Amino acid sequence: MDCTGLCEVIAQSGLDVGLAQFLSLLLAVVAVSGVPLVTVIFLIWVERKIAARIQDRIGPNRVGPFGLVQTFADLLKLLVKEDITPTAADRLLYNVAPLISFASVALIWAIVPYTPYHFGADLEIGALYFVAVASLGTLAIMTAGWASNNKYALLGAFRVVALLVSYEIPLVFALMVPVLLAGSMSMLDIVYAQGGMWFVFMSPLAMLLFFISSQAETGRAPFDLIEAESELVAGFNIEYSGMKFGMFFAAEFLHVFTNGVLIAVLFMGGWFFPGWQEPLIAFFWLGVKASLVYFVSLWIRNTVPRFRIDQVMKFNWFFLVPISIVNVLVLSFLVMVLKEIGLVPLDEAGNMALQTGTFVEMLPMTIVLLLSNVLICIPIINRLRRSGNESRAELEARAASRAVAGATGD
């Protein structure tokens, strides 16, 4: 391993090169993991404020200016609360589950390219790494539900298994779209491939599928069946208290924003903005794009009611999975056709190379792929309209029947 950058600076102070490499790696890990830790404190305040505005409330406004210190007050409260472990619980798994839950989200940030020059690790299997690490969060919830020795917690864990098996499929198929277009699973390569055109303009359907699937895997409304207060009291975390509950709480808040960051990286060009490649500006643009997706997520959470378990399953297997498969097949076919007729930027070896394509060169490919998404969506929208009309007619018929029964005294 070469000793460059921070390692070189440390080595110049007289330390051994090996020790300098270790210290530089340690500082890099602390810096990368520190970003999500600091971010989650701010996100809790932001989410409370936005939820309050949507519900016509003020939100936190007592502790500190604009309620900014409220999160720290809550953190202190969780730290001093009694730590309870049920007598019949599996103590090891019960105590390890909150740590795995938060670590699974923090580890995703290791592959996020913050700027062209700042990223934790440029893995060649970055997309696969994300899928694997994100699954650890689901495993933590399953472990918590089983180890708590509580029927409500176990039911919450069962629902997590159902959601994971169901929504992992459209999520992976949606993730294949940027991987196919970029020709790489590296997050950095995917960002560079969007230098001429963001993937959201080529396949907005894939971004929508990824957003819905990630929202379901996070367990946020309208997919918050794993907690469902009216059915399971609090679901998998019913037996947790103090900082253990706080870690599940923080992991959920951070996971939602992490989804926003991933969508920004995979479909919205990441830190890339034409003509603006300075590190601070790049970091700012990534934050703006991720915050936009995060706001939409909060908007949905506070306005859409919770689905029933049968509705969630039906929505996935009869809607998301078929669309995601058709989308990948159609996109792959069109890309091959466009490549054969020369409407795709190619390198010297004849392989697709979007990294070298300009906006004008990418325009024909973008128009064709966007039209294919429109054609896929037209029958879907018509089917949804018919389904909505049928449901409305059924409800109106029931209401009319009840009105007649009431008038006749039956």
From TrEMBL:
PANTHER family to which the protein is assigned, alphabetical: NADH DEHYDROGENASE SUBUNIT 1 (PTHR11432), NADH-UBIQUINONE OXIDOREDUCTASE CHAIN 1 (PTHR11432:SF3)
Name of the protein described by the UniProt record: NADH-quinone oxidoreductase subunit H
Cellular component GO terms, alphabetical: plasma membrane
One Gene Ontology term from the biological process aspect of the record: aerobic respiration
Keywords: Cell membrane, Membrane, NAD, Oxidoreductase, Quinone, Translocase, Transmembrane, Transmembrane helix, Ubiquinone
GO molecular-function terms, A-Z: NADH dehydrogenase activity; oxidoreductase activity, acting on NAD(P)H, quinone or similar compound as acceptor; quinone binding
Species, as recorded: Phototrophicus methaneseepsis
Main location: membrane
Membrane-protein topology: Multi-pass membrane protein
Location(s) in or outside the cell: Cell membrane; Membrane
Annotated TM spans: 22-46, 92-112, 127-148, 160-184, 190-212, 253-273, 279-296, 317-338, 358-381
Catalytically driven reaction(s): a quinone + NADH + 5 H(+)(in) = a quinol + NAD(+) + 4 H(+)(out)
Subunit structure: NDH-1 is composed of 14 different subunits. Subunits NuoA, H, J, K, L, M, N constitute the membrane sector of the complex.
InterPro entries xrefs: NADH_UbQ_OxRdtase_su1/FPO (IPR001694), NADH_UbQ_OxRdtase_su1_CS (IPR018086)
Gene: nuoH
Known EC number: 7.1.1.-
Family (UniProt): Belongs to the complex I subunit 1 family.
Name of the top EC class for this enzyme: translocase
Function statement: NDH-1 shuttles electrons from NADH, via FMN and iron-sulfur (Fe-S) centers, to quinones in the respiratory chain. The immediate electron acceptor for the enzyme in this species is believed to be ubiquinone. Couples the redox reaction to proton translocation (for every two electrons transferred, four hydrogen ions are translocated across the cytoplasmic membrane), and thus conserves the redox energy in a proton gradient. This subunit may bind ubiquinone.
